[in-house]
Amino acid sequence: MHANATTLTPDLLLRMNAYWRAANYLSVGQIYLYDNPLLKEPLKLSHVKPLVVGHWGTTPGQNFIYVHLNRVIKKYDLDMFYVAGPGHGGPAIVGNVYLEGTWSEIYPNVTQDEAGLQKLFKQFSFPGGISSHVAPTTPGSIHEGGELGYSLSHAFGAAFDNPDLIVACVVGDGESETGPLATSWQSNKMLDPVTDGAVLPILHLNGYKISNPTILSRIEPEELDQFFRGCGWTPYFVEGDDPEKMHELMATTVEKAVEDIKRIQRSARTNNDTSRPRWPMIVLRSPKGWTGPKVVDGLQIEGTFRAHQVPLLVDAEHPDHVQLLESWMKSYKAEELFDTNGRLRPELAELAPTGDRRMGANPHANGGILLRDLRMPDFHQHAVNVPSPGAVDGQDTLVLGKFLRDVAKLNQDQRNFRVFGPDETLSNLLGAVFEVTNRQWDARQQDNDEFLAPAGRVLDSMLSEHQCEGWLEGYLLTGRHGLFNSYEAFIRIVDSMFSQHAKWLKVTSELPWRRKIASLNYLLASHVWQQDHNGFTHQDPGFLDHVINKKASIVRVYLPPDANCLLSVFDHCLRSRHYVNVVVAGKHALPQWLNMDEAVVHCTEGIGIWQWASNDQNAEPDVVMACCGDTPTLEVLAATSILRHHLPDLKIRVVNVVDLMKLQSASEHPHGLNETDYDSLFTKDKQIIFGFHGYPWLVHRLTYRRTNRNLHVRGYKEEGTITTAFDIRVQNELDRFHLVQDVVDRVPNLGTKGAYLKQLMQDKLIEHKVYIDQHGQDLPEIRDWKWGHSK
């Protein structure tokens, strides 16, 4: 498209260009300067930071974008904020947030004067200061600019259920090469123009990564245009390096994109237009390191990969570069931009929006301000009737699905709760939610489709864990609630995304101006012990190990043993704030152990002795049988039943763990048991046989400081294939027969009875193997087992 010469008046063009120069000047100052912020005296090496680090290449382009978004915000009174996708573009956003006044409001010591400029510059990439990328410390940000790939999915998550919001998402052309970002262009098929806001992607095509060209910058313009049109977008191109021409073109293009968004929404909301819109996007092609040094030491800098980080080394080994830096900074003519006190001149300051319309002050970017409590149903209404332990079977996630259905129903008018997952909501037996809502889907529909609609509370129509995680994070960060349900093995795909979100929560919890947001809730089903038809590829409980590496103040891990415990745990998780809650639950029919009143007490405590399964009430236990997870609980109780039948004099204590972090010391985790309470449960010296859902060494890791070292953990140890449910337990030696043998091997003085029992268990293992090879299913005594009836 061609620039309309009347989009900007000559005066406005001059002032916008001056504002851009001011942002560029602040950006260079942040990267380099320790002192002398307005260059009121000749620049010296002592004015430069001893260690200069930062990224210049993306920064001037982002400054350019920011000033143009400011203009349309003011013209149209837009509710808009900025997601900075390119890595390490911190100087741009920090500088612009400072220019608009938000930074000084949040951090009053960084004043709008020369002293404030000096602090602004010094803090950047300096010990005790701020990082070189957009971070939680940056007002207006919901997106950490460290690891690349998630900007666009975060932007869509923010836009869901925010009909008046436009999220301007700047995508780096290096970032665009990541798998998550490449997939996220398809998110436009999930956006409802009636009930959701809009995302305006701006692909910042400056040509280079750290030392390589970018793919999208090197394909033919026609191919690039066809790519985005094929993804369902209407791309508008802004290309060049002449500031005056680029300002005109950008102003016209941004205005056209805003008008397109308004037209699409008006057509859908007023005229009931149900056709899928082709949302606008902008491709900004500008030089890497625009307006920076063009040639240094005979090497071209601007427009090359050399502009990516620090384009000009200024240190004792390059003393002549001090003059080059001074010339570069003076090219922005700071004396025309700031008064003698260092304050931005009024005619430039008025270009920025005011109040909450400033992108750095937009309430959506500090989502806790907007957070409203969920309306919660009474989970007791979904209780499984358990007349006695193990008397009935139940499918835990099937029960939970009905509870989540009620959560969705109660919060329909608030539109602040969603279920996310990669096409696994039905597979994980949460299908009850479709009784009250649909999957959100704005692409074409066919007659045999189920539960698809332009608006819905479930986003599971895209088979990408990355998108589900990114959408949910964006949704939570802007003040809403939700959960991510996934197969346990494949949640590992978002290991790194979880890490980044946990880091965000940790840092924001230390910032008094950041409000707490709703917790990130994971429901991991189809877990490691329920893969009899999928086998080895679907077995990996290692997400638990990964999660507990993060800050103890942030992470929580729950393994409820039955449906009533799952209901109690999930009610707690949905009410919680500023945590990552990981809940592992099964979907296959398993015995139910506790009635609802017992479950609430047990889950509130997080760990406890199951007296009904124990026989040590009047004496010291000979062995502690501990369990954590639904399947380990079943096998430990089955082993206990066998032991009590064959060795009636053996004193057994059964301890069940719901809250995994109870095992850790109270000095290391806020949920951890103190030493006295731990010892009262597990004793100081008795043998502990522990059946655990995940990798055994995780329990050892959590308990390594405890007094009792007689801990023997059975769990998953990378054995599996296409086989029966019980045989997976046998292969990993978590089954009841192996557990009984463990007790015989480790508890002293069991004598002849112990020897005969161990032989019986070995016989059972052989019988099991012969039976499944012949019949293709587990032994009847395994399939039909009930608590209290083992022999």
Protein architecture, described:
By secondary structure, this protein is of the alpha/beta class. Helix content is 36%, strand content 13%. The chain has 25 helices and 22 strands. A 6-stranded parallel sheet has the order 12-9-13-14-16-15, sandwiched between helices. It starts with 9 loop residues before the first helix and ends in an 8-residue tail after the last helix. The model has no long low-confidence stretch (mean pLDDT 95).
Q: Determine the fraction of residues in helical runs and give it as a percent range.
A: 25-40%
The biggest beta sheet reads: 6 strands, parallel
Q: Provide the residue-averaged pLDDT.
A: 95
**β-strand number:** 22
List keywords for this structure.
791 residues; alpha/beta; six-stranded parallel beta sheet; five-stranded parallel beta sheet; 25 helices; 22 strands; 36% helix; 13% strand; elongated
How are the secondary structure elements laid out?
Blueprint: H1 10-32, H2 59-76, E1 79-84, H3 90-99, H4 102-106, H5 114-123, H6 151-159, E2 165-172, H7 179-184, E3 198-205, H8 215-218, H9 221-230, E4 234-239, H10 243-270, E5 280-285, E6 295-296, E7 299-300, H11 321-330, H12 346-349, E8 393-395, H13 396-410, E9 417-420, E10 439-440, E11 452-453, E12 458-459, H14 465-477, E13 481-487, H15 495-508, E14 520-525, H16 543-547, E15 555-558, H17 563-575, E16 580-584, E17 589-591, H18 596-605, E18 607-609, E19 623-628, H19 630-646, E20 652-657, H20 675-682, E21 687-692, H21 696-703, E22 711-714, H22 725-731, H23 736-746, H24 751-775, H25 780-783
Helix pairs in contact: 1-2, 1-3, 1-5, 1-10, 2-3, 2-10, 6-14, 13-17, 17-18, 19-23, 23-24
